[in-house]
Task: inverse folding
């Protein structure tokens, strides 16, 4: 839902975001750029996490993000409005509550609770 929240923010601008991360104006984002940006935001990511973030969006496997790869990785697949985002959050909350109730029942019956897959 983070992509959707960014897309519906009034001050969201992919171009300025990209320029902020590509602080040396190399025309790409690598782990060094990303690390400096995150430190400015008081986020201290490990090298493994920085590599994982880059790999997640790096389509041509060159260990850096072009502007297009960054834009495609950050933008949601669909257009969202504030209303649709609110509905998504409500649905997610209902699913979360249903999962909690199911896990509570499982613990009282002696069965192991189901775990969600991480993507």
Result:
């Amino acid at each position: 839902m983070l992509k959707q929240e960014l897309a519906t923010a009034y001050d969201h601008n992919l171009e300025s975001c990209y320029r902020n991360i590509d602080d040396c104006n190399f025309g790409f984002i690598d782990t060094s750029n990303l690390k400096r940006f995150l430190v400015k935001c008081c986020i201290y990511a490990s090298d493994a996490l920085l590599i994982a973030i880059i790999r997640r969006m790096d389509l041509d496997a060159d260990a850096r993000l072009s502007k297009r790869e960054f834009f495609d990785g950050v933008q949601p697949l669909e257009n969202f409005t504030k209303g649709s985002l609110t509905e998504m959050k409500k649905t997610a909350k209902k699913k979360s509550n249903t999962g909690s109730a199911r896990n509570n029942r499982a613990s009282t019956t002696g069965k192991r609770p189901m775990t969600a897959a991480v993507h």
Residues 2-74 form a domain with the Recoverin; domain 1 fold (CATH 1.10.238.10).
